[in-house]
Amino acid sequence: MFEQPIDRRLLLRGAASFAILAPMPVWANTAPTVSEVAFDPAIPALGNPDGDVTIAEFVDYQCPICKLVFVELKKLLAEDRGIRLVMKDWPIFGDTSRDAARMALSAGVHYAEAVDALMANERGLSERRTHDILAAAGVDVAMARADLAARQPDIDAVLSRNDAQATAFKLKGTPALVIGGKLFRRGMPVAELREAIAKARAA
Length: 203
Description:
CATH architecture: 3-Layer(aba) Sandwich
Helix content: 40-55%
Strand content: 5-15%
CATH class: Alpha Beta
CATH topology: Glutaredoxin
CATH superfamily: Glutaredoxin
Order of helices and strands: HHEEHEHHHHEEH
Shape: globular
Distance between the termini: 36 Å
Number of domains: 1
Number of strands: 5
Oligomer: single chain
Largest sheet: 5 strands, mixed
């Protein structure tokens, strides 16, 4: 599926709006800040944790457009070593998506591999399917499940923060991207991601 060229129309399909909003600091006081969205200490950063530009993606592991966007983001990370990528788990497709998000956040040192594997999955998820995907990626599933049981209130608090931020942004669904303090209510191909990164650096 992902070996084929990305269809830009597919990538943009389903977006509620293609507008770029103003930088977050000038939004209403109830809106989350850049720091709250991009630097949640409970969410590991992919790419370069010390990068000069952060991309935060609101994502569900069962969202097909999110998977296409992730392919484009990986291209960007491969060519630009200055990018921090933060996955804002927003499991809008039900309990199975919520379990996958919880398990990814419980994967410890294998978090990046867990994200990659769940994003590469082309089938629907179930608890067993999630376990199989993560085990194949090198995650000790039993340990991750035990960690989840011990830390579930903290992990659920992450998901609640992400949901509150998505609600504040009035997002209609996944994916959505925050790049350098601007909100994009859609996925973007790598060429547009490069342009958004360049504008963020210039600002």
